[in-house]
Amino acid sequence: MAEENTQSGLCEICMIKARKRFGQNFLCDQNVVRRILSAIAPQQGQNIVEIGPGFGALTESVLAIVGSMHAVEIDRDLIPELIDACSACGDLVVHQADALEFDFCSLVASVNKLRVIGNLPYNISSPLLFHLLEQIDCIVDMHFMLQKEVVDRIVATPGVKNYGRLSVMLQYFCVCEKLFEVSPQSFRPAPKVDSAILRLVPHAEILTPAHDVKNLELVVKTAFNQRRKTLANSLKTLLTVAQMQAVDVDASMRPERLTVEQFVKLANCL
Question: Max CA-CA distance within the chain?
């Protein structure tokens, strides 16, 4: 009963202090927290950073296991309460910063790479994921709460309707796994969409590497900007049909039919 009362009080605070401009929806369901903690499986001494810890619903549990961790929080008004809530759990270093501009590699000590976790604001989730991909060499793995629709796009396979730019780029860098879904009722205030937990693990080795990732991004973005057109039409400003045929890509296909490897082959023609 004490835990329920405490949780109820926290939810009331979350409702009052959530800021729309930061896209804040605070996790208040302890059962979901326990499931996320089990999925992350933190270990003492690991280098963990949490994006958007809010009032520390997940932070407290992780910090109690690892002993020390980092958190990146943009809302300066939340930080005193976060530090207070976690004071008995371990050493929490809070960086008041915009995660979209934060240098995550600056937190890497010697060979102890980062494990990144967080409940990502839905309004910046895609650009934030691309920002993290730019620092992928510093990261061991990532576990995020995201809008379910975004997670479904990330894990989509070729031929599926929601397969697109996000699918290709995330899957090029990482093994992408949808773990479980979370209902709006687990948050305060409750969002209007369902959420899901995503696990991203960087590939130990990319079997078909892009000569230049910027070229891969260009080809993928250009193709999906006109996803209803054939590759011959959508990529005509970048590649000829002969170039596509030279790497065994059918120019009459639409972009959602191509595998990640085929996109890399096209990019390597530039």
Answer: 70
